[in-house]
Amino acid sequence: MTTPLFQHGTLALLVPGLLDGTLTMADLLTHGDTGIGTGEGQDGELIILAGVPYQIDSTGRVNHVPDDFTLPFANSHFAAFTPLLTATHRDRRDLQAAVLAQTHSANTFFALRLTGTFTALTTRAVPKSARPYQSLAATAKRQSVFSRERTTGTLLSYYAPQVFDGVAVGGFHSHFLAADHAFGGHVLDFATFSGDVAFQQFDRLEQQLPTQNQAFMTHDFSHDAILDDIHHAEN
Question: What's the pTM value of the predicted model, to 2 decimals?
């Protein structure tokens, strides 16, 4: 039996600005030693590697995340990656297509870990907002964008099938941390990658919803442009 993928919240709840922190980092780490997410108020971009959580804030600084840090949305799992391929100057779209062709996993959840050197890597992070929270579209307009012509580090990506678009990002959702911990964030794009690609399949999604949060429980999502706003903000 494969390791399950744990998800707290949904990307859809970020669309209208349901950004209360409803899970602590300490709780998230009980579900995995690897993951991504964002903090309360969409406070930066998170990446967990080898059990250590990092936040890339809107200034571009990489911070260690304390146990009491709270999150509205996150994914985590216990790493059991297997080598998939070695890439040499592969562009992003070609690499993603090669992964799908080799794994035949377009209709399942899986994780990728890319470790090596990237060119023209562009990331982003969003400044923390306070109540009353703004919508995802509004916060995306305030994002900080960072880039490096050449950088070495780890890209962690979760893939979700298109039928789960809105619950997660349909396709690849990727965060990055440089080896020197001086750069990272949500990945917008990169030109080429050279290094090792590791793969981990999931046959189960453990979905946790914030049922103790009144704003989530009483919100009417039928008035939200969920997919349009997610795709605009994530790309």
Answer: 0.95
